[in-house]
Amino acid sequence: MSLEIGKVNGIGADLVGDILLEFSTTNVSNPSLMTGTIEFLFNNSTTFLFEATIQYVEEAI
């Protein structure tokens, strides 16, 4: 259903129940390090990411 919503110009948004997954192929630089930094975007900054993801997937298909 999410793919079809994207196809008709609907985009993901926070607080609507969409499940988004992120995968990374990076290597862990220091696995023994027990602390880290978390970076995030504020809710009103994510719309462009949802739009870009939809366009990228459509082009890939």
Automatic annotation (TrEMBL):
InterPro entries linked to this entry: Peptidase_S58_DmpA
Superkingdom in the source lineage: Eukaryota
Name recorded for this polypeptide: Uncharacterized protein
Organism name: Rotaria sordida
